[in-house]
Amino acid sequence: MKRVKNSKKIIILLAGVLLITALSTIASAADNPWDMWNTTNPEAAGAMFGMAMFTCAIFAIVWFIIWILVAIWVYKDANKRGKSGVLWLIIVILLGLIGLIIWLVVRGEKQASSRNCPNCGRGIPEDARSCPYCNKKFEE
Ligand SMILES: [Zn+2]
Questions:
Q1: Does residue 112 sit within a domain?
Q2: Residue 124, domain member (yes or no)
Q3: Secondary structure of residue 81 in the 3-state scheme
Q4: Is the pLDDT of residue 3 over 60?
Q5: Residue ranges with CB less than 5 Å from ion ligand 1
Q6: What is the pLDDT of residues 17-68, one digit of tens each?
Q7: At what angle do helices 42-80 and 2-29 cross, to 10 degrees?
Q8: What domain range includes position 23?
Q9: How many domains is the chain built from?
Q10: CB burial of residue 91 (10 Å; 0-12, 13-18, 19+)
Q11: How many angstroms is it from 136 CA to the middle of ligand 1?
Q12: 113: Cβ contacts below 8 Å, ≥ 6 apart
């Protein structure tokens, strides 16, 4: 878990450094950075295009890594909650952000719909064999 947190920090740091590098390059190469696509110098336009493509590629890779971390989290979270980790992994990969939102809704519902103890009426886990509050044992 500590390792995942560290790699996340490195990714964010890397993305920040790349963004600053890209922006400063664009700013120094063009008199007016926002006018760079209208430049009359084809060489400068080519360099801008290359830089933009490079930045896009880096962000795509960073986004891809973040997305893998999200998919791993969904897989582990689903397994922890007694759902099929593989199924939810596929849903998140296929549907992307929509799949992640569906999972967040489903996992929230699962938590809220836990049954109540017939003895004391308090919310208890779905698979509890005895009430954690009043210690009443349940027949299967
Ligand atoms: Zn109880």
A1: no
A2: no
A3: coil
A4: no
A5: 117, 119-120, 131, 133-134, 136
A6: 777 777 777 666 665 555 655 656 778 888 888 999 999 999 999 999 999 9
A7: 160
A8: 2-67
A9: 1
A10: buried
A11: 6
A12: 126
